[in-house]
Design a protein that fits this description.
Elements lengths: L1 E11 L4 E12 L4 E6 L5 H8 L7 E6 L2 E2 L5 H8 L2 E5 L10 H11 L4 H14 L15 H13 L5 E5 L7 H18 L2 E6 L2 H7 L2 E6 L2 E7 H6 L4 H8 L10 H6 L3 E8 L7 H8 L3 E12 L2 E11 L2 H13 L3 E4 L11
Parallel strand pairs: 3-8, 3-9, 6-7, 7-8
Antiparallel strand pairs: 1-2, 1-4, 4-5, 9-10, 11-13, 11-14, 12-13
The structure holds adenosine-5'-diphosphate and magnesium ion.
The site of magnesium ion has 3 residues, from helix 1.
Length: about 350
């Protein structure tokens, strides 16, 4: 549905040249929620702005349903953009207009008639849960409500694609969750494909089907949510994932534990998260697993767990125990450093 092919973009100022995007390619499939994560300055906003050509790439193709937007006339581009909605961190509402007008004015500008405007405002305010706020001004709304108005405004054009540039970054954690729930609902019930960018892994974790990790204008890693969590390859990806797991082991603990057994990380996805796998290990083999740290998080509809365990026992029994875990699709890695932050998962 969205295909970016070899997109590059350099910003030139009087004193310098800055490569914001360096040969970026990615593909978003119809009906999915695709996330791009990266630190500030990675090039995410530039990338997402290239999708509706708010930013024109220096080179590369921007294909929407097979049509390259970079080749369209201004009129054709305006038509194509109607199918692409966008929401922002700062909401971008008209301060002097009511909620109704914030949604109605852009519709009017694109030539939608009055009866249809009334119908759509009604419909989309109900979908975002603000049916009682027609007459309110943005200053009378909370951050979460403002973002709901912005979402209703985008949906009122009945787009196929919704672009989200850090839409939850200005919101508190609870409101972030509520807006993410709304994005999931829009995706499921209206079938809208969503491309979102964020610097927060918890946003990716809760809603995305697939994701790309960006750094210095380059996509450094890409895959499904489960693939990326189960075996991240790039250092930046590992750091983003590690940031979600509490790293509160006392200093020196891993060194100390290593004297009495092997310290390993177990990561597992799905059904196995609810099985008493370590108890089974102790029963089946002459080993004594000791949990040093652990948690389970939700990855969209799956569960993903991670445990740091010290397995005490002789070499042969430990090897058998490790093989038993691997047989059950549990990923195992030895904790290499002396501190969890160095641990690769
Ligand atoms: N209009 C612009 N002119 C000059 N430099 C820009 C412009 N827009 C973005 N940049 C630079 O491009 C890089 C990528 O920016 P951006 O895409 O906003 O990153 P992100 O959204 O990941 O924080 C940054 O170094 C930023 O300063
Ligand atoms: Mg940005």
């Amino acid at each position: 549905m969205i295909k970016l092919k070899n997109i590059s973009k350099t910003f030139t100022t009087s004193s310098s040249k800055l490569v914001a995007l360096n040969n970026v390619s990615l593909e978003v499939r119809k009906g999915e929620i695709y996330g791009v994560i990266g630190h500030s300055g990675a090039g995410k906003s530039t990338l997402i702005r290239c999708v509706n050509l708010l930013e024109k790439p220096d080179s590369g193709e921007v294909l929407i349903n097979g049509v390259d937007l970079t080749n369209l006339s201004p009129k054709e581009l305006r038509e194509s953009r109607k199918r692409i909605g966008m929401i922002f961190q700062g909401f971008n509402l008209l301060k002097t207009a009511t909620v109704f007008d914030n949604i109605a004015i852009p519709l009017k500008l694109t030539g939608v008639d009055k009866a249809e405007i009334n119908k759509r405002v009604e419909k989309y305010l109900a979908i975002v849960g603000l049916e009682n706020k027609h007459g309110a001004y943005p200053s009378q709304l909370s951050g979460g409500q403002k973002q709901r108005v912005a979402i209703a405004r985008a949906l009122a054009h009945e787009p196929e694609i919704l672009l989200s540039d850090e839409a939850t970054s200005a919101l508190d954690p609870e409101t972030t969750d509520a807006i993410l729930e709304l994005l999931l609902k829009i995706n499921r019930e209206l079938g809208i494909t969503i491309l979102l960018i964020t610097h927060e892994m918890n946003v990716i974790q809760k809603v995305c089907d697939r994701l790309a990790v960006m750094e210095n204008g380059v996509v450094v890693e890409e895959g499904s949510l489960l693939e990326i969590y189960a075996s991240p390859k790039h250092e930046t990806t590992k750091k983003f994932i590690n940031s979600q797991f509490p790293n509160d082991l006392p200093k020196g603990l891993i060194q100390q534990e290593r004297k009495v057994g092997e310290v390993i990380t177990l990561s597992f996805v799905g059904e196995v998260t609810s099985q008493p796998i370590l108890a089974a290990l102790a029963k089946e083999f002459h080993v004594y697993p000791n949990i040093l740290s652990g948690s389970i998080i939700q990855l969209k509809e799956h569960q993903y767990g991670r445990l740091i365990v010290n397995i005490q026992g002789d070499g042969e029994e430990t090897a058998k125990a490790v093989a038993y875990l691997k047989d059950r699709n549990i990923q195992i890695e030895e904790v290499k450093g002396n501190d969890l932050e160095y641990c690769s998962i």
